[in-house]
Amino acid sequence: MGDEPKFLRPNVIIEPLADGFYAWLHTVAPVQAAMNLAFLQVPLLESYLQSPQVHIAASNNPALRGGFFVNIDEGRSAGVRDLLASIKRDRAPMLRFAAAIAEAEEIVRQGATGFDLTPLYPKLPAELAGLVEIAYDTSNQAGLRFIEPLVYQSSAYMQDRQKVQLSLDTGAERPFILSTPRLSSPDVLELPIPFRHHGLEELFRARVHPTTLSKLREALGLGDAEAARLAGLLTDEPSYAEDRHIDGGGRIRYFGHACLVLQTPQASIITDPWVSSAAAASDHFTYRDLPDYIDLVLITHGHQDHIVLETLLQLRGRIGAVVVPRSSRGNLCDPSLALYLSHIGLPVLEVDDFTPVEFRGGQVIATPFLGEHADLDIRAKSTYCVQLAGRTVYIGADSSGIDPVLYRYVRDHVGKVDMAFLGMECAGAPLTWLYQALLTRPVTKKMSDSRTLSGSNAAQASAIMTELGASEAYVYAMGEEQWLVAHVMATTYNEDSVQLKQVAEFMTWCAANGIKSDHLFGQHEWRWS
Ligand SMILES: [Fe+2]
Ligand SMILES: [Fe+2]
């Protein structure tokens, strides 16, 4: 029993969790995770427990979509109470670490007056000893710099917070990840294992290579009841598309949002991987359509819709390297993507602006990424030029045209671009939506609203195209594929949405200027010989 060859069902989904909350960069990287736990997630759970009805009503109000409300039935509030109690008990070192950061920032604000900083070190909270440096910039503004690799080694990085939930995708919308923790449920297989656990690699390899229930049971360390649940996630037949590889020329496939697969017969590249499981999919690509092996994964930036752990965990074991932009090394708002991903077992290659990365038959060049981070000093962001099968493809993600001259320099460096992929979420969320827990000094609403996570509008996208000299423009990364993005982005568009009007205006400009353009939705394919 349990020794027949088995494949993973195509519609299996995994939710990686940290203390019950969906895992993403700011809930896993230790400095930011401590701040989010102490200053966002604990207060959110406390607020829910005070008045669950308010949270439930707000969660069901379309006008408040994407707000910070816990969407859990009152009948399950005991589970929320247990979660809060376990966080306060088991995560005390993280909560103290977060309080220490807030305290240290205040010490630096008060004490760093342009003079010698040496006297401040003994005043810092003990939790930060050995983990921070205080430094001035050249305009005499002082700040804390975290020695981030050491924070991962400290008691602030608690790997036992991590667990995963496996289930079958029913097509139902999942709760918003930034606000609603996942409780245990009979419908899901919950495994208290860290994300780097080798058993997960074994499990997801079984999308392509058969394994057995016994092997998986051993790899994941399952008891009888868990093994029985796992059996329900397996099937006798593989599920992959015959045309997932090509035998000549080049191909690009749009998988939804910012995820593109670029292929030649020799190599495959995926950008900002976010792949749909196969539930009810006939109009978009899924895991069935991925090449068996992916040479390079290109990550553009740390927003939760571009570095999607849920997909990355499923690719581990079938990728050459994950290419990530280098961070500022220790800035509170700018966690290292390389440290984050290498600590969950992914092979990482860190790049700076204009670093070239070779792959079989082509080259990737990391190029600058401008704006879209609420004017915070975040360096871990990159666009890319991919040269393959005779074409140069610009992967622009959410980079904005705030200063389009930048793109003239990019063109000087990489040559003429053939196809440009541009994000145009030009009315993005305000500063506090994503960074609230990291702001140790409150900002006014007016200030926050003025600083948004916005990509290019029509005029900026047109200017980027002019400077790049690209002949084809494709608008993507708009958060429109609800089956993929709803629980992560909580976007809503209608025909009056300014973003969609700006896209239409940009496409009119493209047509008038002899540039081929399209507004991508669902799936799309380009093929050339
Ligand atoms: Fe973004
Ligand atoms: Fe985005």
Task: Please give a structural write-up.
This protein has 529 residues and is an alpha/beta fold. The strands form five sheets. It has a seven-stranded mixed sheet. The protein has a seven-stranded mixed sheet with strand order 15-16-17-18-19-20-21, covered by helices on one side. Strands 3-2-6-7 form a four-stranded antiparallel sheet. Helix content is 31%, strand content 20%. Helix 2 runs antiparallel to helix 4. The chain has helices at 25-28, 30-50, 52-59, 77-90, 92-111, 148-153, 198-205, 213-220, 224-231, 309-315, 337-342, 405-414, 431-435, 445-450, 458-468, 482-489, 498-512; strands at 7-8, 12-18, 21-22, 132-136, 142-146, 162-168, 189-191, 234-235, 250-256, 259-263, 268-271, 294-298, 319-325, 348-351, 356-359, 362-367, 383-388, 391-395, 419-423, 472-476, 516-519, 524-528. The protein has 17 helices and 22 strands. The longest helix has 21 residues, at 30-50. Residues 301, 303, 306, 372, 398, 453 line the site of one fe (ii) ion (FE2).
User: Which molecules are bound in this entry?
Assistant: fe (ii) ion
Please tell me what the overall shape is. Answer: globular
Q: Any idea what the radius of gyration is?
A: 23 Å
Sketch the major β-sheet.
Answer: 7 strands, mixed
Question: How many strand segments?
Answer: 22
| Count of DSSP H/I helices | 17
Runs with pLDDT <50, length 5+? none
Question: Residue share in helices?
Answer: 25-40%
| Measured distance between first and last alpha carbons | 49 Å
Query: What strand line-up does the widest sheet have?
Result: 14-13-12-11-10-9-22
Strand content: 15-25%
| Structural class assignment | alpha/beta
Average pLDDT rating: 95
